[in-house]
Amino acid sequence: MQTDRRTFLMAGGATLAVSTSGRLMAMPVANTPMVARIEPAIDDYWGTKITDNYRWMENSKDRDWLPFLRTQNDHTRAMIDAIPGRKALGERISALTGDAATTSKVVPTRDWLFYEQRPVGADNFKLFLRDPDGTVRTLIDPTIMKIGDAHVSLDWWEPSFDGKHLAYGLSPAGSEASVLHIMEVATGTILPERIEKTDWGVTGWLPDGSGFFYIAFVNERGTPQFYLNSENRLHVLGTDPKTDKLMVKRGQWPQIPMEETQAAFITTTEGSSSLLIGVVDVRTEKALWTADLADFVSGKGVVKPVCGFDDLIVAQAIDKDDLYLLSNKSNDRGRLLRTSAKAPDLTTAHEVVPEGAAVLEDVHVARDGLFLSFMDGGIQSLSRLSGDKVTPIAMPFDGAIDGVFTSSALDGAYLRLAGWLEPSGIWRIDTAGKVADTGITPRPPIDTSPYEAKRAFATAKDGVQIPYTLIYRKGMKPSGANPVLATGYGAYQYSATPRFGASLLPFLDAGGVYCNANVRGGGEYGRSWHKAGQKATKANTWRDLIAVCETLIADKVTSPKHLAISGTSAGGITVGRALTERPELFAAAISDVGWTNPIRYVAEQNVSDIDEWGPMVDATSFKIMYDMDAYQAIKPGTPYPAVLCVTGATDPRVAPWHVAKFAARLQAATSSRNPVLLRVDFDAGHGVGSTRTQRDALAADIHSFVLWRTGIKAFQPV
Questions:
Q1: Of 327, 357, 550, 611, whose Cβ has the fewest other Cβ atoms within 10 Å?
Q2: pLDDT in tens, 497-550
Q3: CA geometry: angle 61, 62, 65, nearest 5 deg
Q4: Closest among 534, 539, 519, 522 to 610, alpha carbons compared
Q5: Distance (Å, rounded) from C-alpha 320 to C-alpha 305?
Q6: CATH number for the domain formed by residue range(s) 9-95+453-715
Q7: Is the pTM above the cut of 0.85?
């Protein structure tokens, strides 16, 4: 039930903030934020009545939605810009990131090497091509494109096996609302066809490069139905996309059962006459079928079942006529199986690699063997499989293997490697197993020797050891007064691995300490680590972060008045529930595009992710979701710490109303005078397509906010 009451309250006068010493500081601010109107909606969930005062924000066409976002953001901008040190911090961040090139993806083909890079000094990623003679040319440069007033981002790209054609997606304002384009690589000619609603891109090229399979979304963008009932289609180059052949959709194949939240990926491998059909959703497991590629394309193919979701196959690869499957069935850390691609039989599959001490994460096919990725508590490693022999490959340093890029037509592999204090680069493994820096990503002139990273463990509430890493400037002493920014994620079996960030260094130089907590819900120790922080056990995720923070306090690294926490995306649950469960433990919290109102997942575009969280089908499953809902956990009259809530207006993954509702309710509920700020980037989404300028500005805002609220003198208003 909703009322018709439409009252706006305007905050008047100067904004008051409480310093860490308790002294009131007047920060004159020209902009005053609109306080959200209260318009209760009451829901009955299996006998539990829930009041939602800000339900109206879920309607982006509400007359008050944009005014609320704009006035809140104006106020936040004025507050943060008034922090002494913010301007200098931002300039230092920009100088450092401008010196550091970043390469995100490499695809080797028979004659050419494609790579996506943000070059030194550039504001966005571009796509480059290296010819056989070493000549490099730019294929796609989004920095010279505009869609209306919005910047353009390269969302995804995939060349044909021979490298002669390239399919790619472009979208405005970080929205990930991709439109598919096709390029003739040799000439740079853009073919005339365009395909809308191709956010997930191309899933496989035909061997002769004449066409490709892709995911097509058929529902209205921005609605809860958008990602539902997607289709896999075949596009032939030079033809009208309206005539594209439907290959797989829900209900089309009796042998291929699909739910509305699932999508069908059709993948091909150079040198194999078989293709793979995979039905996937947000889970790591998938259902698979094989088919003869030529017969399937002609419409005469017979699909052969490989596995169902209950078989717990999490990765797969075809090498000629062999099908490799990474199985978690009856094991936690993965084993590699081999069967026939033409006549798959999981019951008789040969075990090639048994379960080991580290988690087997993925398998990649090259001409001279298979490359296997492993994970151990956040640190990754790589081995080569030749025949049935597994040979570990010595990495130049411990850290993250952010990508393994191979071709079944070429020997070796390209790697994207990074460490906490090692800038990311593209390395190559040769046939002898030696790893060398390719130089594709020039090493930045940044001295990381003044800093160090230390790995340690905290004991969780239930006794489990939780790994975390501290990054700080050498000489940091356990005084109890160090400003700490602790972050946690813990979802989707995604592992928080070492990643160098030039934008972090000015924060460390100012005395800050960064803490990365590998909380449960991620994939650092395999499937069981994920399940231990999911659904009914989700509380472990935020309580693991709390345990890490309590350990830092006990070890006198910091204290509550110097401690801040943050979480991004699904990490909004982690930071939001840590904040609402233990508000006295923190001086500040940052929810960056955070998912904070899970019980309202039915109202957002990304509803298809619900397998990670629910769904709510009865009183028991409702309580599970309710318990992780940070928005609903806010209690009036509680002295909450300072909070910075961040969203992008075009976010397709976490609806901006999650962040806006969370901020509005905190502003109304807190009994302290600590600021609750809402930062909105109207030319950004989930951060995926943001420019360097946007990323730098966000880092400067977050770090100056943390340094202000945790007591660093140079960041205190006079």
A1: 357
A2: 999 999 999 999 999 999 999 999 999 999 999 999 999 999 999 999 999 999
A3: 95
A4: 534
A5: 18
A6: 3.40.50.1820
A7: yes
